[in-house]
Write a structure and sequence with these properties.
Blueprint (H helix, E strand, L loop, with lengths): L14 H5 L4 E6 L5 H15 L4 E6 L2 H15 L5 E5 L4 E4 L4 E6 L13 E5 L6 H11 L6 E6 L6 H14 L5 E6 L9 H10 L2 H7 L17 H4 L11 E6 L6 E9 L4 E10 L4 H12 L7 E3 L14 H7 L5 E2 L5 H11 L3 E3 L4 H9 L9 H16 L27 H5 L5 H9 L1
Parallel strand pairs: 1-7, 1-8, 2-5, 2-6, 6-7, 9-12, 11-14, 12-13
Antiparallel strand pairs: 3-4, 4-5, 9-10, 10-11
Helix pairs in contact: 2-3, 11-13, 12-13
């Protein structure tokens, strides 16, 4: 394609990002830095040089891609570059037959399929991590395609960890990764006095996150009580501590099994190992779980109660199938009180997780309120910890009397932390928890 000038001029702090040739670039930047226009510029430049390839821009929602990015794309592209535009599909076909397509992360099915030369995740802190790891990453393999991750932060979620990893690899000399950080003040075209006026009218936490691109701890984080130093530790002396298992079964999602030792004397639960597999049959999962367990005695195995759903063709449930292949289970408790119980275990250091349990640790670090995916290991832990709390450590709260009341970030977190005043009236802790969260 002949060289044509795009309808955009990069400002001085966008230029280093454009000139960087790393395969994977992570850009953390504040509002109005020019993230979206820079992302589109990168796609247009690459598409113009590579005929017959596919280039994707992925926004958090289809509506965002349509209302903001597609308009900018059409404005920035000279008409001579465009062979055809399909507005209903948010697609532009260039004269060299390369396609620039705009996608919404809220339509997962639309993201599967073609090999990609480049993809941009715009505001990717608001996009689920599994869309990158489980879907898009494999579509870059054929062409060794590039990816750009650009966003302001949303608490400390996967985008934070991706940036940390990119910064670490870049520091070690890995030329495939690059990391950039800019605030709204780093856009020289924005009047500084206007930014200062905004700062005077919004909360400091909002200012820091949205304009200074600084992660605000625990914004949206479901298990904000998780502390790596306090909750991650290897059990070195097993003694005669009883062992239990928890299972969160999956077909489309992973099947997870966790093993835990319950130190009843010291009121501590040690999660010692995890199993995390996708795409296997029930028989294969059971065999693997039993092989890992070996000859050790297991007090009980708790499973997601949705496993009781029966197959109309066989009249057998998932739970029946597990039992048929040699792994009998009891039903877990799915009520929301389980989240409170897990948070309490974490907050008071009553749970210790072996460093090998990487999936569980990662979910505890990044899972947010409202997430419907990426919670398989934490769900498994929840079923197990609720049963331990109800049946194995019934006096767990005794030592928490008189503690300073926990200030929750979500109203549902209040339940278990009012125990001292409640115990003056009754000793039935489980009944009280149930009253609070139903």
């Amino acid at each position: 394609m002949d060289s044509l000038k795009l309808n955009i001029v990069l400002h001085r702090n966008q230029i280093p990002i454009h000139e960087n040739k790393a395969r994977f670039r992570v850009i953390k930047a504040g509002k109005r830095f020019g993230k979206t226009k820079l992302a589109l510029f990168e796609l247009m430049q690459a598409a113009g040089k590579c005929p017959n390839e596919v280039f994707w821009f992925i926004a958090p929602t289809y509506r965002q891609a349509k209302s903001i990015a597609f308009f900018d794309l059409l404005w920035m592209l000279p008409k001579q570059c465009i062979k055809r535009k399909l507005e209903n599909e948010l697609m532009v076909i260039l004269q060299n037959d390369s396609r620039i397509e705009l996608k919404g992360a809220d339509n997962e099915d639309s993201l599967r399929g073609p090999r990609l030369k480049m993809v941009v995740f715009d505001e990717c802190a608001y996009i689920k991590e599994y869309l990158w790891n489980d879907i898009i990453r494999s579509q870059l393999v054929d062409l060794k395609g590039k990816a750009i991750f650009i966003s302001s932060p949303k608490g400390r979620n996967w985008f934070t960890h991706l940036g940390d990893e990119a910064k670490r690899k870049q520091g070690m000399g890995d030329k495939d990764w690059a990391y950039f950080y800019y605030t709204s003040f780093d856009n020289p075209t924005l009047p500084r006095e206007e930014l200062e006026k905004i700062r005077d009218t919004i909360p400091e936490t909002t200012w820091n996150q949205e304009y200074m691109a600084l992660e605000q701890d625990f914004v949206g984080q479901k298990y904000s009580e998780f502390n790596f130093d306090k909750n991650v530790e290897e059990l070195k002396n097993i003694k005669q501590i009883p062992e239990v298992r928890g299972i969160d079964w999956g077909l489309d999602h992973p099947t997870v099994c966790l093993w835990a030792r319950v130190d009843i004397e010291n009121k501590v639960v040690w999660i010692t190992n995890e199993y995390f597999k996708s795409g296997l049959t029930i028989n294969e999962n059971v065999k693997n779980i039993l092989d890992i367990t070996g000859s050790r005695a297991i007090e009980w195995t708790v499973i997601d109660p949705s496993a009781n759903k029966r197959d109309p063709a066989t009249n057998r449930s998932i739970k029946d199938e597990y039992a048929r292949w040699g792994l009998a289970c009891v039903d877990g408790d799915r009520r929301e009180r389980g989240t409170d119980i897990v948070k309490m275990f974490l907050k008071h250091g009553k749970i210790k997780i072996d460093p090998r349990c990487r999936n569980l640790i990662r979910e505890l670090q990044i899972l947010e309120w409202g997430d419907k995916v990426g919670d398989d290991a934490t769900d498994c832990a929840r079923y197990m910890l609720v049963r331990i709390y109800d049946f194995m450590i019934p006096n767990l709260f005794e030592e928490l009397k008189g503690e300073k009341k926990f200030v929750p970030t979500n109203p549902r977190e209040m339940s278990i932390y009012d125990l001292p005043s409640y115990q003056k009236q009754t000793n039935n802790v489980s009944e009280w928890l149930l009253e609070q969260v139903i």
